[in-house]
Each structure stands twice: as C-alpha cells, then as structure tokens.
Amino acid sequence: MISYDFTSETYKDLLFDRSYSQPAPGWIDGVYYARKPVIHAHDLNKKNIFECRFLEEDSGSLNGDVATIGHFEYYEGAFLRVATLASNYKLTMTLKNPTNKPVQLDIIVNGLAEKRIELASNELKTVISDVYLTQRSLELTFKPVNDTSEFIKVELDKFSLSPLSIEDSNLPKIYIASDSTAQTYNDQQYPQHGWGQCLYYYLFNNRSAVIENDPNSSYSLAHCYISNDLTIVNKSIGARSSKSFIKEGKLKELVKTLAPKDYLLIQFGDNDATAIRPLRYVNPTDFIKYIDQYVVSALDRKAIPVLITPPPRYNFIDKQHAKISFNDYRQKLIEYAQEKNIAYIDLGKIGSEYLSQIGPAKSRGLFMKLSYGQYPNFPEGLEDATHFRKLGAMKMAAIVAQQLHEIDGQINYYPVPVLKTLPKPSHITAQLVNQKNAEHVLLKWDAVAQADGYIISKNLGRNNTSEILVGENYYNDFPQEGQESEINYLIYAYRDNIVSQPAGIKFNHSFKNLVSMENKILGINLYEIDATTVSDKISFSVRFNPNKKVSKYQVVVFEADNGQQLVLDHFSKDQINDLHSYTINKAADWYVYIKGFSDQDELFQSDNIKIIW
After folding, report:
1. Burial 558-585 (b: 16+ CB within 10 A, else e)
2. Checking phi first, is residue 48 left (phi over 0); if not, alpha (psi -120 to 50) or beta?
3. Residues 55-84 pLDDT 10s
C-alpha cells in the first residue's frame, strides 16, 4: 500500500508544477508539434494546495486542409506523480476546498478523467475510486468543470493507493488491441473483415464460436468469440493508433478485465504513420513509448503480451515481390521485443511473403478491391489497398494463429487441410438480368469446398481476354461498349497457387442497355464513422475508385436542411490511396460526395452518400 499524509509532511519529491506558456511550434515539414510542458518542483509556499486549470486549442490546418486539424488538451498547474506498477488500485483521497466558493472538478489520472466531484466552500471530503493504470506511475491533477481557463484551488490532505486483487479467468482469454485491419465488421460492411474476427476459426477445434458484443466495452465494435475452453475478446477499432487508443481510454477499459495468464495481442503502426492526422501520428521512436504501455499493462497483471507487426498492404515492388508495409515501425517493434524478451509475430514480413508467393492478381482477392456490381454493400465496387475482405482476413488470422501456437504450444492451432488438387466448378448457369435499365449477365455455379475463390476468364472477341477474381460462387458481368454478342466464359477454382481445371459456358446476346460510367466517380464508401469519441463531432473516412480521366479530386459535404456545402479536401490522383479522414460538427443530415476534374477541367462526380451515425 502507498500512503501519504500531506498535512504532516511535504513530500516535495512527489509534487510538481507544470505550465504550457509557450505556443505550439505548429506544422513543421508536414508534422504537427504541440505545446511542450515546462515542469519544475512544486512551490512549497503553497504546501499541499493544487492550483490547476485546463487549456484546449486546435492545431490549425496544414495547407488549408481542414481534415488535418487536431484538438489538443493541456493540464496546467500542480500535479502529483507516484511510482507504481501498471495495475489496478483503489485510490483514496481526502480533498478540501480551501476557498469560500463551491467548486466542481474532474479528478484526472494519467491524463484521463476518473471521477467528477463537487466541493462546497471549505468542505472536506473523502473520495474513493478504482483506477486501472496503463503505465508504471500515477499522475494526479484536477480539471475545473465550469470555467476551465481559470485556476481552481484544491487541497490534497491525504492520498493512498491499495492494490486490487486480480483473479484468474475462469477460461483463458486472448485480447486483441488493434485498428481496422483486425476489427470486427457487421453484415452491412460485408465482405470487409478484420483478422481479429476470423482468429477463432483456427483456434477453436470445431471452427465455430458463440459471438457476442463485449459487455465490458463502451463501443459496439468490440466482440467476444466464445468456446468451451477459450474466449477471444477483439477490442480493435478502426482509425486508432497506439497513441489514440490510449488517449481515448480504450486501453484502460481493456485492462479492467485483463487477468493473469490472459494474452494481449498488440498490433498498431498503420495509423501511427499518418503525419497529417496529429491526434494519431507517432514517429517510430515515440511509437515504442506507447507500445511499452501495452506491454507493462500486461506484464504487471501477469498476463502475456504478444507484439504483432503491421500487416501488409497491397503494394508490389514488381510481380514477384510485395513490399513490407510500415517497415520503420516494424523494425522498432522487433528491436523492442528482442531487447525486452517479449514474444512477437512478424505479420508484416510473413504476410508480404505470402502475397509475393501468390502474386499481384490473386492478392487482389485478399483486399477490398471489389468489382462493379458484385456486392450489395459496395454496388459500384471499391479500390482499397489497406483493408481486407474475408479471404484476406482469414489468411492473416491463420498466420497469427500458427505463430501463437509456436509461441505457446498450449494454444491449439487447427490449420485447414493441405490440398494438392481442386475440382473444377460445376452446374454453371448464365442468366440475362435487366436491372435499373442496364443489362448484364449473372453467372452462378456450385461452390467448391476449400477454394479461396474463382478466376473468371472472359473472351471479349478479337483475341481479347480479361480475367477477374471473385470470392463467391457467382459473378455479375456488366458488358461494355464494343463487346461482341457471343461471350465465352471459363471459370476456375483456386486456393493459393493451386488452380482447378476450367469449366466453361457460352452466352449469346446483343447488349443494348449498358452501364454508363463515363463521367462518374464510382465506389464512394464511408467507413470508420465515429460520433461518440468527441460529443459534438462526427469523424469518418472516405474511399472511392479512381477514374482514369480525373487528375484532381475534392471531398465535399453538404447539409440537407440548408444546403450548406463545405469542401473538406483537395488532392491529386497520386494521393487517392492515402488516408482520407475528416471531422465535422454534428448535424442531422450530412451528405458526402466526390468531385473530380480532368486536365481539361471536365467535371466528374460521385453519388451523394449520407453519413449515418
């Protein structure tokens, strides 16, 4: 137990004063630098009285791009710092209001609000709160609730920390702290998947799970996958970095239920690298300072941390070699793991080697690179080089499961059977469909067990052949101008580099009503929509398909009630695969669309899509 009586002793080594008197350096070479604190010993003339206030400011935009604005918060004044374990404690304090005015304040522990209290004039009150630490120290200060810019006074008379007991889990648990590449997705986002929602398939002996919302989570994306002898708790959430996952209190929430012998899988790096998003960005060196909080949070609770390098993106150096993604962050993570003797899984390297093995064409089938008309949730298709569709998430989950088994043989791993051949697709049908006054061919066939997907070869006439990969046992083929009336289809099943013999079908029709895509920007999709982290704001990310004629794009929002329009972003065609994330004030009906312009200033535009929150 840690206990201090500040009415009888000064404890000058524990009390400090902090100020942020100098303005933020701001944007320098594409990176935002926030205010730096000046910390010095507490003024002993003030004894145990804390004078505190709260400052907040926006970062300002980078090159006029409102999406780059971040909201920063600073706690000024006195604070207490005590060395602890990164564990669970009961915090007991005796506080006094030394003024003749009532005060309402938040108790701030390690930068996060723990409890709100009111103190009448000259009132003495004992406050008790359970705290869940994610670093090996406790830093205590106070935040005024009403006029945050004015200093409040609080007298800290007594302070104590007593450890809370952490009982073993009834069943071992595997927790996952990560981003959108591991997150659980719902049916409205199919076929997008994160590897965290597929992990049970390789760790549970019957390949099935009871799937529930995590009852201990404040956000609906967290899910539990339950079997008779193991539970996986996927706490992953999109648009988070190692820093923002902590700053938003999500790691603190996770460790409340983390128990001895549980596993904590930690994978970040994708969002940490986005310098134009200052609330997420962490340079590779500081990245490890945040990763260390995850590791010590597990170790001090006698849980087992496992670090995972960022998974690969769809990025090929040439046709034989996929590039390792976010390699600066990967290298720092591996160096840290080896120095601290922490288990790690090099998903970035193993995953990119798998992409290299199957090549660029089949690798498209792992990512959200979707053809026009194939998925109801993405009717115009999609080009996304970062996020996985189900097959990609399954392949990444298989790597994680196998590596976990190698780290700890008590974790069972159930691989899929090894195949030497695949049967060819059977019972193929071809049907003419007239939908929204546009004709297309619907191909269907019987699913091939254990196939990853299907290759459809289409003879376009004039010795012209195209190939496309699909994940399901159907394909909507939308003919284009100039296509001959007779079409020859060959359909192959494949798994990794095993390809079946083809099955064929012919279709003959003179297509008249074709889909026109000339002046459209297709595939607009909103994701990572968040209306809870900041009470009066909505944040979201947008992705869409490039149009070959467009050289520059705009992201535009408009409010349905009054027609107000706001251009959120401008970027060139070379930046289309970058992250496009934005934050706007809440309104009842915001819509988003994409504008595009050719070099001749010809206008292209997407459909409008509503932000649903």
Report:
1. bbeeeeeeeebbeeeeeebbebbbbbbe
2. alpha
3. 999 998 888 877 788 999 999 999 999 999
Closest by alpha carbon to 101, among 156, 48, 43, 150?
150
Token pair of 479, please?
Answer: 């003919």
Strand order in the sheet with 537-543: 525-530, 537-543, 581-585
Domain with CATH 2.60.40.10 in the chain: 429-508, 525-610
Cβ contact 214:222 at 8 Å: yes
Where, residue-wise, is CATH 2.60.120 in the chain? 2-163
Mean pLDDT for the chain overall: 93
Q: Which tokens sit at 176?
A: 């996952």
Helix axes 347-364, 390-407, angle to 10 degrees: 150
Q: Pick from 574, 2, 533: which is nearest to 238 by CA?
A: 533
Instruction: Give Cα 413 to chain centroid, integer Å.
Output: 26
Report in angstroms the alpha-carbon separations of 307 from 132, 197, 351, 414. 21, 18, 15, 22
367-370 sheet: strands from edge to edge: 192-193, 382-389, 367-370
Q: What is the pLDDT of residues 197-208, one digit of tens each?
A: 999 999 999 999
3-state secondary structure of 12: coil
Task: Quickly tell me which residue has 């609906």 as its tokens.
Answer: 220
Q: Single out the residue of 496, 557, 560 nearest to residue 524, CA to CA.
A: 557
d(CA 218, CA 399): 29
Give domain 429-508's CATH superfamily. Immunoglobulins (2.60.40.10)
Q: 173-407: what fold?
A: Rossmann fold (3.40.50)
Query: How far, in Å, CA of 373 to CA of 477, rounded?
Result: 8
**Contact (CB, 8 A) for 197 and 184:** yes
Estimate to the nearest angstrom the gap between the alpha carbon of 102 and the chain centroid: 42
